[in-house]
Structures are given as C-alpha cells and as structure tokens.
Specification:
heterodimer, A: 696 residues, mainly alpha, 30 helices, B: Jelly Rolls, Rossmann fold, Elongation Factor Tu (Ef-tu), domain 3, seven-stranded mixed β-sheet
C-alpha cells in the first residue's frame, strides 16, 4: 500500500510526533513500521533524523530510543543508513538535553559498541568508526568541563569510565518447586518478570534455570526470548541501570520503553510488585508445600503480567498502583525492622487474577522463542488467597486512617473500556469491610503467620481487626433536614453550624469525611473526587476524557507555540464563562491523518502508537457520536429559546452568524470572533483555545 | 575540542540526595518556603491525603513548587516525599481544636449549609433573587486572608459549587497582575503548583490547552499599590466590580446559590481602614464578614456593621477567627518579586506552558497612552485621565489595554475592564518608534492604553 517513499515518510513523521513519552509499545510499533517499510529505509532515516533534531528536549530521549530500537532490530538497512549520520544526530541531541538524559544517552552509546544481545552476529551495533568519534567528542567535552568545574567532574568521570557499583541482584534464587499444572498451561505471552534480557544479570538466571529444572516452565525466569515483544527488550537491554540502586533492584531495561502512559509510573509499580514477588518467593521457598503461598505467588506473578500488558486501562493501573505502592511503602518502612520476608499485604487490593487473555502483541520475527508458558489462574481471587476477613484486617490496620474505602471499585467499569476483543477486566473487588472480623479458620491456617508478623511489626492492631474509628464515619444525619424546612432570614437561626467563633472551633470529624471520602475516590491526575453513583461515573468519564484530550492538545500546542489571550470583556464573560461548553472537540482525537498509507497490518499498531492506550477507539467513537447527537439537540433547543447559543461552538462562519443573532453588532462580532480565536482586529490569532471550554 | 552546550549543565546528583520523607499526622501542616532564586522543590504525596489551601494533591503525582510560601495540610495524615532545598517545618497540633484549619473547615460547612438553603428555597419564584452567602475576608497584613479565601473557594469547588471570587486588593492581583482588581467564577479545580495557589496569572486563558482548567476573570485596572493612594477611584472600581459580580450571579443559578468570596486589602484597624472595608462590604452586599486575628478590627466592624442589614434585608454576621500562626511574612522585597514573576509569567508562561509573546514596533502615533495626571497638574474639574507623552521613561512599564475605544470619554475608559497588558520594551526617540511586547499578535487597534503608577518596572522583559 505504501507506494512511495514520501507517503511513508510523512506517516512516519506524524507517528513520531505523537511519541511523547517513553513508551515501549509505541517504540515497538514504530520499529515494526520501520521494518516493514525497510524498502523506504532512507526516507525513514531522514525523517527520524530530522525528528530527533527538531523535537523538544523533553521528547528527545524517546526519539533516540526509536533509533536505537530500529537499528538493533533492523540492522539492515538502518544501521547502514544511520551510521554516517550518527555523529551529528547524537551530538546534536546531546547538546540540547539535560543531565539525566545525557546519562541515558551515554548508556545507549555504550550498547552500540557491543553486539546486539540475543543475536547470532558478533558485530557491534554500529561499527567502531562511527561510535568512536562520538566518544572522543564526549571525552574532549568532559575534559573541558573538568577544567571548568571540578565539582562536576566526579560524576561524569565515573560515568565515562563506567565504574559503577556492582549490580546488587535482588533476584533471590527461586525455590525448586513445581508449579501447579494449570498455571503452566495457559498462554503466557508477556513476561511478568521484568528481568533483564541480556547483560550480566542474565547469566545467573540462566544458570538458575538449569539448576532448577522444574522451574523451566515458569514464565518469569525465561528471560531473554520468551515474549513476542522482543523488540523493546532487545533494544533496551543495554541502556541498563545506571541511575542508582532503584533501577538495579528492578533490573528492567524494558523500563525504558515501558511507560505507556505519562503520569503513571509503571516502572515503580512493577518495582513494587517485583519486590513483593521476591519476598513471596522466599517465603515460598521456606515452605514449598504450602499451596496458599503458591497461589499467592502465582497471583502476584499474574498481576505483574497484567501490569506489563500495555492494554491495561489507566484507571486500573492507577488503582493497582495506588494500593500497591502505598502499601509497599509502608511495608518497606516496616521491613527494615520486621522480618525481612514479610509477605506483602500490598497485593490484596489489586485486581483479582482472572482468566486473562494475553494482551495483544505485535508479532515480531524473533527466532528461538520458547513456547509461551501457560497461565491459568482462573478461580483465584483475593478472598481465596487470604480470606476476606484477613484482608479486611490488613487494610483496616494499614496506612491511612481507615476511612471508608468501599466504593472505589464501582468506578472502574465506566472508565475501563474493553481491551480489544478480550473481555474487560472485572472491576476490582475491594472487600474492605473493616467491621467484619476475620474468620478464625483463615487465621488458623497459613495466614496466621502472616498476621502474626503483621501484628508484630505494628501494622495490625492486635486482635482488633475493625480498626475504623467511629467518628470518621460520615454522619450526615447531623445536617438535619429540618433545618431546610424552616427557612428563616436570620443569620444563624435554623442552621446546624452557627457562625460563632466558638461553634466553629469545635472539631467535627464527620465534616472531614465529607470533603474526602464522601465525595468518592479521587481522580488520579488531579485529585478531584467523583462519587460512584451513576451521575458521578458519568462525570468522571467526562473528566478523564478531558484529561486525555488536554494531554493530546498539549502535544499539538507545543508544535505551534502559544500565547496568552486577552481577558474577556465584561459582557462576554457573562456569556462565555457560564454556559457549559461541553461540546467535544469533534473528532479531533479520532482523526488520524495519514493512516491511509500505512499497510493494513500496521494500522492498528500505528493507531495505538499515535493515540496511546488510554481509550480504545471503538469506545471513543461511540461516545463521540452520542455527544454529537446531544450537541445537535442542544443547539436546536437553545436556538429556539432565543438565547445566543455561543456555547455550542458552532463551526464555520455561517453557523457562527446564526448562533449569535441577538447581540448588538459589535458584540456579536466579538462573540463570534472570540469563539473562533479571532483577534481584536479581526485577524486570526490562534486556535479555538482562546475561549476555554467548560471543564467537567 | 569544544562543543557548544556540552558540559554546561552541572550534574544534578547533589540535588538527588536531598530526597526526604515527611510523615504527618492528622491535621498537621508542613509549612515550607521556597526562596525566589531557588530551583524549586518537588513534592510527592506518597500516601494519605494532603491539600494546599483546600485543593487536594493527587497521590503519587510530583508537584513542583517555586518561590512559594505555603503549607500542605493533611486531614488524615500523610507521607510526603520532598526533593530540593527549602525552609520547612512541620506544625504539629496536639488536639484538633488547636488548629485554625478546623474553624475554616467548619466555616465552609456553615456556608455550605446556607448555600443549600438558598438552593432549596429557590424553587419558589419569589425566591429567585436570593443570593448565597457573600463572605468577606479581612484582617491585618500577613494574617492569611487570601489563603483563607482560597481555602473556602477550594472547598466549595470540591463539593461541586461554583463560587464567585472577587479581590479588591490591588496589591496582589487575582488571576492578574498586581495593581488590578478582579473577579472570576471558580468552578473547577485550582492549580496547586501555582505560586499563588491558583489565584495567579497562571490560571488565565492562553491559546493553548492547560492541564489545570483556566478561569475567566474580569479585571479592572487600578494602577496603584494601596487603596489610600487613590481612594475615590478605588471606591469607583469596587462599585463597578460589584456590579459585574452581581450580574454574574444573576446569570447563573449555581453561582447565585453559591455566593461570593471577597478578598480584601490589608488595612489598619483605624477609621480609614474600616471605612475601606465597610465600603467593600456594602457594595458587595456582604452578609458574612470574617476577621482574621484582629480583635480590634473585629470590634470596630461589629460596631459598624452588626446593626446594618444588607440591601436584601439580611443581617450581617461579623466573625472573628484565629489566624494561623504559620502565616509567612511576606516583606516588600518578596511581594515585589512576586509581582515581577507574575509579569514574566503573564507574557512568557510558566515552566509547564511556555508562551511566546509578540514583539511589535509601532510609531508613537499608533499608540494612545493615557495616564492619571500628576498631583501637581491636578486640580478640581480636570479630566481623570490625560494623554501621556511617550518617552523613554516608559520603558519596561506594563500598560493596561482597556476594553474601550480611544474616542470614549476618559471616565469611561478609566472604568472599563481591561483586556490585558503590554510591556514597553524600548522607546526610540529619534525614530519615534515604540517597541512593545504584547501577548497576542495583531495590532491593538483603537484600544487606549493606561499607564499606571504601580507596579514600577524592575525588569527588562525583552533584553
């Protein structure tokens, strides 16, 4: 389909421009496209080079990772094309980025001197004659810098020599225990265990695999080549840890590309889960016959799989992350004092491991891939793992004051669109019922040790599972309706809260709950809370859409430059600030120019790369249609009522005229003009953002 | 071999080691001051809940604070992870009743009750004109007036209300530059990272998208720092602003039922100071007056207002609340810095949103600049604004662009709302040309510019 190089280049350029975050999936997709259009390699090389040159510093690194990935996965022809330009690309980018990014670039440069990990070829990624000039330049630059500022020398020098502290491997040996058969039988496409695919850490793990023959079928130690998502893992293998121990303990080179959504630190989450797994494994090692530990470990691993899947909706991720990290932090704090292998309660609020279909992956031709390890975690749920009561106890005793948390999960179904054809993940059941005492049976079996340890470490009030303090419970009865029934014009009469200093000084815990949990769980982006009823869910959906759109538009806006708008004049404020300007920006989010030229097989991937994964397209389009319909209806009604329907954001000059019919001439022009971003003197001064839309 | 740009960045390793974790118990506050010159601090809420002046922080989001003196309060206890250098301490309260925040929260709910009441009453046709509570926050200097106003607004917004916020304090702009008075409806979450906590110029619209929803203020230009500098004009503008506010309230039920939060200038508890407050209270038909930390002012206002009724016949409640002892001293230099940064931010945006203003070069004749006549030139019956001669003195001043026509009489121009500001970059006397910085492209047309007396230029925005 891609007939000429210009089309391909154009599409590729657009796809690149949408690459804002360091997202593995997007980079993988871009690599795939490059692979399939290798015949137009030169054009793509141009595009990528220009992109790296032009892109703002913050987005340079992802662009460079694309280069890295393309070159490592499709060495022919791209390594040839990029080689001669390498110096200018690299140094150009190096001069404009900040220190942290430079270190990442140093790591990447190092990997270029080595062969592609996992490939048969022993040739380095780039021939030395291309890499060496860069190194020389960097060394020279550092010498200059050294002369200039000795203080900065240490860090860079260290960097240059690469004499970093040895890698503290946190992967404790896995115990030689067979896993339950069903687990091995499921399709396990994504490696749940974000270990390094190559490099020094790989070796011990492979040995470990051999050592423990039984473990061969476990999904996670099959480090190097067990996933179809090979591109990122290979390409990112070397930009390995450098940034301190936190990267080491989670030796996930994949991290680099592994953040599909800005704002959600999947790495961190993975890190946390990883630590839980490590702890759990050790626990498991102690008592390999304990099936409950086994299942718990399995569930954790599955959770990890889930997290790695690029298709997990944002809400879910955030929820999982919120709970895991929150509890993990607690645990870490306690871990220092408590037994080192505390089984982690952080797992509890995470989504139950459901029979999950593997997230869709873009197949990449990679040889020597072991058959996917199966997963079947059907039937596992938190309750079966821990027992409901125990869970409740844990949650009741840990972390923040036990405010009522129950309603959280209800939100999910709205905001969680189905992941392609796979069934949507069920809402996370958070069986938080602090009042429910733990069943004795659960306590007496395995978890008793756990609970005991938790008590010991102070996480759990001894013998007091229902830790929710009564005063925090919302008590709206205090705001007695009779108050409303007696309308009095006097200042305090008839009101529950009197406007008297003494009355206001009294602490009323129920009021605290009313501005917190009574309002529902917070938005993970801005902290705004939404109730879990129908209305709240609708609002939250709109709200998340808004976040999504804004993120997209920020990317667009970066390209064209922005400026402050004039304040609105007196009359206009009246019209514009109050009408709910809910009309969506048409199909902007849906429109993907240039898709027509992309080979069929890649459309989906490209689309994902462009749109991100926040919302599958089908769902969005459906919503858009509904809104368009609503907008039409509203336009009619408002128009008939004789009010200037400015808020409908009519498009096109004709429509604009029709919608501001009742204003005096000058004002009408202004309303229409402002709405369309026309300046005072009638010239276009920008895009439509001049008038902010109502934000849900 | 030297490559431009290389090696110029000092490694951030030193900063990276200053990460610290702060655990707060319920109702404790973490008070911090980030100096103006510092690179800023980043704060991440690890667990629990925290808020800055009522606006909640999202868990695990990294917030950057620059040149801010503020506090983070937690109602439930929280853990914060802070990175960067700042003066900070934790304010601990043994009992919840010790914290002034409790009374602020109660105040919010007392207001909410009255708002709900108005809403419930609005069913009947004759009650359509009922207004929600109009609160005026006043007090001496450094008593946390604006912070309380912000907190009340944030709480109201959190619960879905849409309060109208007005500031009649020209010393610090609300959604605007210093020297202005403005009002806006706050129906959406405020910017936590804004040095002014969501009241700064950062919250105004630009042509680009904004991660925090923008607010649309209506702004009047006072052009002086203190009310006393031009009392009569201030009163005029207060009346004008109150009129605009009233119009807004009448337009939308949500705003009408929610009412108003009014921020006032710091005044002394003497006759003239109280007069200022009483004037503002009357113009805005305030029915709840909150006095922060000044018993004298409270007594005086009680005497003046307690027996009065608003123009809707409601009694006026005057209420003395404690000021938070954590209120930061903001001296003259700091305030000047704040103003300077606000001007920069108005034209060039903030770290998250870079704006590109336009530089224009026009002849003297294309600009109509008006100014308030000097005292020496002033005598009874003279016009309130006279044309100002363009001179090199004007360099670096910010002038207000009025929403009026050059042909309007000066009285109208003076009281007109403003469209924005331009900054004079350079005046070339020989060629009779002026270079100025404007937020938008395009000529100014026949908009008059007003040259105020304050804030004086400290910085050259262009050079």
């Amino acid at each position: 389909m891609a007939d000429n190089a210009a089309d391909v280049a154009d599409d590729y350029r657009q796809a690149l421009e949408d690459l804002t975050a360091n997202s593995r999936i997007e980079i993988a997709t871009l690599t795939n496209i490059a692979r399939e259009n290798a015949s137009h390699g030169l054009a793509i090389t141009e595009v990528l080079q220009n992109h790296i040159k032009k892109v703002p510093p913050a987005r340079t690194l992802p662009a460079l990772y694309v280069l890295d990935s393309v070159v490592k996965n499709v060495p022919t022809p791209y390594a040839l094309y990029f080689g001669p330009k390498l110096y200018s690309i690299f140094m150009g980018a190096y001069t404009k980025v900040d220190y942290v990014t430079r270190r990442k670039m140093d790591e990447m440069l190092k990997t270029w001197k080595e062969p592609v990990p996992g490939s048969i070829s022993t040739k380095p990624v780039f021939p030395p004659e291309y890499v060496r000039p860069i190194e020389n330049a960097l060394i020279a630059a550092r010498d200059v810098a050294y002369a200039a500022q000795k203080s900065s020398f240490q860090g860079q020098q260290q960097l240059l020599r690469g004499n970093r502290p040895p890698v503290p491997t946190r992967d404790t040996p896995t115990p030689p225990t067979a896993r339950p058969a069903p687990y091995q039988a499921g399709p396990h496409v994504q490696q749940p265990f974000p270990g390094p695919p190559g490099g020094p850490i790989q070796q011990p793990q492979q040995q470990q695999q051999q050592q423990y023959g039984d473990m061969a079928h476990q999904p996670y130690p099959m480090r190097p080549h067990n996933g179809p998502n090979m591109i990122p893992s290979r390409a990112t293998a070397q930009p390995l840890p450098l940034a301190g121990p936190s990267h080491y303990q989670q030796p996930a080179p994949r991290e680099a590309y592994g953040t599909p959504q800005p704002g959600i630190s999947i790495d961190k989450l993975r890190d946390d889960i990883q630590q839980l797994i490590v702890a759990e494994k050790a626990e498991f090692a102690r008592d390999p016959h304990d099936t409950s530990k086994q299942t718990r470990l399995l569930a954790l691993l599955d959770l990890q799989t889930l997290i790695q899947s690029p298709d997990v909706p944002r809400e879910q991720l955030m929820l999982v992350k919120e709970r895991v990290s929150e509890l993990a932090v607690n645990m870490r704090a306690h871990n220092s004092a408590a037994p080192p292998l505390l089984p982690h309660p952080a797992f509890t609020p995470t989504p139950p491991v459901v029979p999950q279909q593997p997230p869709p992956v873009h197949p990449v031709a990679v040889a020597s891939r072991p058959p996917p390890a199966p997963v079947n975690a059907a039937g596992l749920s938190i309750d079966t793992l821990f027992g409901q009561g125990a869970l409740a106890t844990l949650l009741g005793g840990i972390g923040k004051p036990p405010t009522p948390q129950a309603p959280t999960p209800q939100l999910l179904p709205v905001a969680v669109p189905p992941v392609r054809a796979t069934p949507p993940l069920p809402p996370v059941p958070r069986p938080v019922e602090p009042a429910k005492p733990p069943p004795a049976s659960n306590l007496s079996t395995n978890p008793s040790a756990l609970l005991a340890m938790l008590r010991q470490s102070g996480l759990l009030a001894a013998g007091a599972p229902a830790a929710a303090p009564a005063p925090l419970a919302p008590n709206s009865a205090n705001f007695a309706p009779p108050v409303m029934a007696a309308p009095q014009p006097s200042a305090d009469q008839g009101f529950y809260l009197h406007l008297k200093p003494a009355a206001l000084k009294q602490f009323r815990p129920d009021l605290v709950a009313r501005i917190h949990d009574d309002l529902g769980p917070p938005c993970t982006q801005c902290g705004r809370r939404f109730r879990t009823d129908e209305e709240g869910r609708r609002k939250k959906t709109t709200h998340m859409d808004w976040h999504f759109r804004v993120h997209q538009r920020i990317v667009e806006a970066e390209k064209r430059g922005q400026h402050r708008s004039w304040y609105l004049s007196d009359e206009l404020v009246r019209y514009l600030s109050f009408f709910p300007l809910l009309a969506p920006r048409s199909s902007r989010a849906n429109r993907m120019p240039g898709l027509g030229q992309v080979p069929r097989g890649n459309r989906r991937g490209l689309r994902r790369a462009r749109v991100g994964i926040a919302e599958p397209r089908r769902r969005r389009r459906q919503r858009w249609r509904q809104r368009r319909q609503r907008r039409w209806q509203r336009r009619r009604t408002v128009g008939e009522a004789g009010k200037p329907a400015v808020h409908t954001r009519a498009r096109g000059p004709v429509a604009r005229q029709q919608h501001v019919p009742h204003l005096p001439g000058a004002l009408r022009d202004e309303v229409a003009g402002r709405g369309a971003g026309v300046g005072m003197d009638g010239r276009r001064q920008g895009r439509r953002e001049g008038v902010p839309r109502h934000v849900p | 071999m030297s490559i431009p740009g290389l090696g110029q960045i000092t490694p951030q390793a030193a900063a990276a080691t200053t990460i610290r974790t702060i655990a707060l118990q319920p109702l404790w506050e973490w008070r911090f001051e980030v100096p103006r010159r510092s690179a800023g601090i980043t704060v991440r809420l690890v667990t629990g809940s925290a808020e800055r002046d009522g606006t909640p922080l999202a868990v695990n989001r990294t917030y950057t604070f620059v040149r801010t003196k503020s506090k983070l309060l937690t109602w439930h206890g929280c853990t914060l992870e802070v990175n960067g250098d700042c003066d900070a301490y934790v304010a601990e309260y043994a009992a919840p009743e010790d914290s002034p925040m409790v009374s602020y929260l109660n105040l919010h709910f007392a207001l909410k009750e009255r708002r709900d009441h108005v809403r419930a009453m609005s069913g009947a046709a004759q009650n359509r004109a009922l207004l929600g509570p109009r609160v005026m926050v006043c007090g001496p200097k450094n008593s946390g007036k604006t912070s309380l106003a912000r907190t009340l607004v944030a709480y109201a917004t959190r619960m879905g209300a849409q309060p109208l916020v007005a500031s009649v304090d020209p010393g610090e702009g609300l959604l605007s530059l210093p020297g202005t008075m403005s009002a806006a409806v706050f129906g959406t979450v405020m910017d936590v990272e804004d040095p002014a906590g969501g009241f700064g110029v950062r919250g105004t619209p630009s042509t680009g998208p904004s991660t925090v929803p923008v607010k649309l203020p209506i702004v009047y230009y006072f052009g002086r720092e203190k009310v006393e500098d031009d009392g009569p004009f201030w009163r005029e503008l207060v009346s004008k602003l109150a009129g605009s506010a009233r119009v807004k309230m009448d337009e939308v039920d949500d705003v009408r039922c929610t009412g108003l939060v009014l921020d006032t200038p710091a005044v002394a508890a003497n006759q003239s100071g109280i007069d200022i407050l009483v004037h503002a209270a009357r113009e805005f038909a305030v029915n709840v007056v909150v006095v922060l930390g000044s018993a004298g002012m409270n007594a005086e206002l009680q005497r003046r207002l307690a027996h009065e009724k608003t123009r809707f016949g409601e009694p006026i409640t005057v209420l003395l609340l404690d000021k938070s002892e954590g209120v930061a001293e903001r001296d003259k230099a700091w305030m000047r810095g704040v103003g300077e940064e606000a001007i920069k931010e108005y034209f060039f945006g903030d770290p998250k949103r870079t704006l590109s203003p336009f530089t224009h070069s026009v002849t003297y004749e294309e600009l109509t600049v008006l100014k308030v006549p000097d005292e020496s030139e002033y005598f009874e019956g003279q016009q309130v604004l006279i044309p100002a001669e363009i001179s090199p003195e004007m360099s670096n001043w910010t002038l207000a662009v009025m929403d009026a026509s050059v042909n309007d009489p000066p009285e109208i121009i003076r009281q007109a709302a403003i469209l924005g500001f331009i900054a004079i970059a350079d005046v070339d006397e020989e060629r009779r040309r002026v270079k100025f910085l404007s937020p938008v492209s395009g000529r100014l047309g026949n908009r008059p510019l007003v040259w105020g007396r304050w804030p004086e230029p400290y910085i050259n925005l262009v050079g």
